[in-house]
Design goal:
The complex is a heterodimer of chains A (198) and B (415). Chain A is 52% helix and 0% strand. Chain A is mostly helical. The N terminus of chain B is likely disordered. Classes of the chains: A mainly alpha (198), B mainly beta (415). At the A-B interface, α3, α6, α7 and α9 of A face loops of B.
Chain lengths: 198, 415
């Protein structure tokens, strides 16, 4: 399976590599909050990411976080920086990270109000494709279905495109299935709307 | 639905069909008033569905510890018992038996195939292949393990002699479609010593591309690929009638049409290379799809031999030819229903026993193991069944990552 490398700025990459070094310190010397610090350096303090195509994690559901951390550890979801980060973590580590991250506050929608027509189109598409059924009417997610409300628009676009192209395999095929009839123009409007929900 | 059984299924289907027609009429009225109606197949969705909690249910990524398995919740008929065969088998899916007694277990969400061996009365688990993509389909034939991943089939010869240090699988058939939806495969070896597998529809409901929605067969060397049957949506269970030598398979029907229709199906291939089971035009043998069925008739297609409940996710099935469970179960089909997600009140979550007439047609269906659904939640989800040489029956559970064993408590009943 071919995967496009993540777009990370060179400054971001240097930072990430430095932080990964911090990651490898023995678990017994660090509290979960200390161990979480390198994660939040990229994913954002208070659960809100300011890095392009790096998702905000605040308010994310714990079961979804656990599944993603597991997929990264097992290299079933391929992204070098995350595969390295999750390498060697125990099942209990994964649970602890998932539970702790889930308690971060949900991200605030972007301040930019966006284009009204596209937002309305996105809102209609959410209902048409039943995003609101699994992700909940407020798009805050539940259980294994992630929160998407207020997620970074660029990350939503990237992820939806990857699902549609069968590049991001996912834990199961629900999203690839749902996106089969969705056009790229629709993906852009969906992301435009979802990123502005709270 | 499983409690009520098959007898009411036809009734439910006809009521459901009436409901669909009424909904369609209502929507046509609505569509005239609305400026921007939704696409046709999404019409008829009641507004209340927007707040529905229906979603596919993902199993936890790590298996349940043995002492936390829901054994006390599972109910089986009097005279039988159910126990843990193996715990800690991640995402346990298809079960297969080697000639030397090794039980092989596939996975859909993880990348490994496991072997379970019994040594001095204890079970030991080994990884026999890893780094695989959706290795749901596995089959054993004359000592060789065949593995069907999402887009290729490979094999490991003499697997039971190499459990500690198995070689990497050798690919025998590659370049199958890479679609994730319904891309995982079920694999079976036929009485003609050929591999049988399906390429499912890459969607819930659509006109599938040329290579999809078909059952294929291919030689054990990966040569001579041919279409065996047409018009299937997704299959996660196949087996061969012990005397008629015909292929029986479970088929999962489309979602989001209604709570009660269409039902999943039990099908039989009687005309290899010709049978068409109707997808996406006709569902459950008796009603046409609201979008794709116009201008078509269910009379064009091969009918199912039984309906197995709406959204019930009928998966693994095996003919039971042993006698360890009693004469009553000789030659019945044991079938695992994984359980629904696209339905408000969950159904399935059980293992049923299906009895056939001598000509291979459907006679009856009854519950065998129930209890995987508690208070409309899953405590486990059965995937596949495997008759063992000692007459017991194994059942896999991908939600808990476990394999159970069913056997008689007393002496075998004889007629």
């Amino acid at each position: 399976m071919h995967m496009k490398p993540p777009k990370v700025t060179s400054r971001g990459r240097r930072l990430a590599i430095t932080l990964l070094c911090l990651w490898s310190q023995p678990a017994w010397t660090a509290s979960i909050d200390e161990r979480l610090a390198p994660c939040l350096a990229c994913h954002g303090e208070n659960g809100q990411s300011t890095n392009p195509e790096v998702p905000s994690l605040g308010g994310q559901t714990s079961p979804y976080l656990l599944i993603q951390l597991f997929l990264f550890r097992e290299k079933l979801r391929r992204l070098d920086i995350m595969n390295d980060a999750a390498k060697g973590l125990s099942d209990d580590d994964l649970r602890a990270f998932a539970d702790t991250i889930a308690k971060l506050p949900p991200p605030l929608p972007v301040a930019d109000p966006g284009e009204r027509a596209r937002i309305e189109r996105g809102r209609a598409l959410v209902r048409q494709h039943r995003c609101n059924v699994c992700h909940n009417p407020d798009l805050a997610g539940r259980d294994n279905v992630p929160r998407i409300a207020g997620q970074r628009e660029d990350f939503l676009i990237k992820t939806l495109r990857e699902y549609k192209a069968n590049i991001r395999a996912g834990y199961d095929a629900s999203m690839a299935d749902v996106l089969q009839p969705v056009s790229d123009a629709d993906i852009l409007d969906l992301a435009h709307f979802v990123a502005r929900q709270r | 639905m499983h409690a009520a059984g098959i007898s009411v299924s036809r009734l439910a289907a006809s009521i459901g069909l009436g409901g669909v027609l009424a909904a369609t009429a209502a929507v046509n009225l609505y569509a005239q008033q609305a400026a921007d109606p939704p696409p046709p197949w999404k019409q008829g969705q009641p507004a209340s569905v927007a707040d529905s909690k229906l979603a596919p249910i993902a199993p936890p990524p790590v298996p349940t510890a043995a002492d936390k398995l829901p054994l006390d919740k599972l109910k089986i008929k009097n005279g039988f018992k159910i126990e843990i065969y193996a715990a800690g088998v991640p995402n346990a899916r298809t079960l297969r038996l080697g000639d030397k007694g090794t039980v092989f277990v596939s996975s859909r969400l993880q990348d490994k195939v496991h072997a379970i061996i019994t040594k001095d009365g204890k079970r030991e688990m080994k990884v026999v292949a890893s780094g695989l993509h959706r290795p749901n389909g596995i089959a054993l034939h004359k000592g060789t393990l065949y593995i069907a991943e999402l887009s290729q089939i490979s094999k490991i010869d003499n697997i039971e002699d190499n459990l500690d240090n198995p070689p990497k699988p050798t690919v025998i058939l590659s370049d199958l479609p890479k679609d994730e939806p319904h891309g995982w495969k079920y694999l079976s070896v036929g009485p003609d010593a050929k591999l049988y597998f399906q390429i499912g529809a890459p969607c819930n409901i659509c006109l599938p591309p040329e290579r999809h929605s078909k059952i294929y067969r291919v030689g054990l060397d990966g040569q001579g690929l041919e279409v065996y049957a047409y018009g299937i949506r997704q299959i996660v269970g196949m087996d061969w009638h012990p005397t008629l030598k015909q292929l029986y398979f479970s088929e999962n029907s489309r979602d989001w049409l209604s709570e009660d229709v269409p039902e999943d199906k039990l099908n039989r291939v009687t005309q290899p290379g010709k049978d068409n089971f109707g997808y996406p035009y006709c569902h459950q043998g008796n009603f046409t799809d609201p979008e794709f069925g116009w201008g078509r008739s269910c009379g064009e297609f091969t009918k199912p031999i039984a309906l197995l409940g709406p959204h019930s996710a009928a998966l693994g099935l095996k003919f039971y030819t042993g006698n360890g469970l009693g004469n009553e179960y000789r030659n019945v089909i044991f079938l695992a229903r994984h359980g629904s997600w696209n339905r408000s009140v969950k159904i399935g979550g059980d293992v049923v026993a299906i009895k056939l007439n001598d000509d291979g047609t459907f006679r009856s269906m009854e519950s065998f193991i129930t209890g995987f659904i508690q208070n409309n939640n899953y405590v486990g989800r059965p995937v596949d069944v495997l008759p063992m040489k000692d007459g017991s029956l194994l059942v896999s559970d991908d939600f808990n990552g476990a394999v159970y064993r069913v056997s008689r408590t007393g002496s075998v009943a004889t007629k």
